[in-house]
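Deliverable D4.2, example record:
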Amino acid sequence: MFLALMFACSGNPAEQAPAATVEEVATEEAGEAPAAPAGDAWAVDASASKIDFVGAKVTGSHDGGFNTYEGKLYVDAGKATGTEFTIDTASVWSDADKLTSHLKDEDFFFIEQFPSATFKSTSIGEDGTVKGILDFRGVSAVLEFPATISVTEEAATLKAEFSMNRKDWGVEYSGKADNLIEDLVLIKLDLTFPKG
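Output generated by the structure prediction step:
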């Protein structure tokens, strides 16, 4: 879900964020959907939420994100027990039209072959750490990242900022020889789930 860039003098913003942990999917988990979390499913309010990214290259940075996605947060006894999302990769946007078009081709998200990305959690820790299987661009891997989750009587929120390596999901495009793209991408989640 994930690319953009920052001026060399400023550094890559992804380097300032906690790094997500990425592992291979265990053999016994391969091809199997994670068990359904306990509790009620609260659907994400996309109009009040954001799934964004920031990527960096030698000469500058770009903001981006996704406009279309569906997701749920499972809540049981006032605690988040799991989450799942499906993202329409064709809904990717960036702050430059030419870049947005490039992000859709095989150098990046390859939306024609991989029209969606999915994430299904396997656990949410007491500290808010979210762990699950991300299937993006035809690659499935276990992704673990820190998050801040709040649950009230009216709604729940999940907020997170973390870095991930685009090459873990097969995005190998290096950019131009004099304007190389950084491997680390900053992911920014600001999600709201009304009760119900």
